[in-house]
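Data availability (excerpt). The following record was deposited with the supplementary files.
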Amino acid sequence: MDDPERVARRQERERLRRAHPALFAELAEILAEHDPVYLTAIGAPRDEYEPEVGTIIPRLKEASNVIDVRRILVEEFDNWFGVETAKMTPEQFLAVADDVWDAWLRGEPAAGANLTHPPNREELEAHYRSGVTLIRRGEYFAAHEELELAWRAAPQAERDFFQGLVHVAVAWYQAGRGRHVGTVRQLEKAIRRLTHYAPAHRGLDLDSLLTQLQRALQVAQADRLEHAVRIDLHPVELVEEQQ
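Predicted structure:
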């Protein structure tokens, strides 16, 4: 006879699948692509991470940013597999968290609406300038945290711009750790979001940046070896807009 707790968990997973079919399927695919515990790498089916999706979705209501999602993912994978089993560090879960967060906001529009704050120009400018400076120094993880704060303080019309810069920082961070899937997905999302603000925005030459992103994407796509030591991208250059 099945364990009652296991039966209850399976029933809850099926309820979530019926209530959020597109979100459930997308999160399962995201986890299969990033493969935190190398299940798909050893030939497991693409739906192997569905049990984890079933415990992650209910907790996403706790999240107000990507960092919260990363914490939830780390805790859930610890619950399912143990710290020693997960093949990613908490920092490496960042790209997974970004994809999950993006899917959650698209799948649950009300969640994004609840995160809108009155724009604070001074706070926004401070976090933005700090994030740009950190990217130029190659401190990509710290840059992503500053730009995430800028995104939260930004008016709706500029949120894709700041999210695009977050993707830039995360892409180079993932490349430095040889995460092929994470790098490619972050570069693709950066290009998609920043294209709308070209040729320039907030003093940045976005045409120049988008050219760099396209070149970096070609390099990352050509490097098919997941979990390599690093993907050798040229340092990103944020060029000031010519007046």
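Summary of structural features: The first helix runs from residue 4 to 19.
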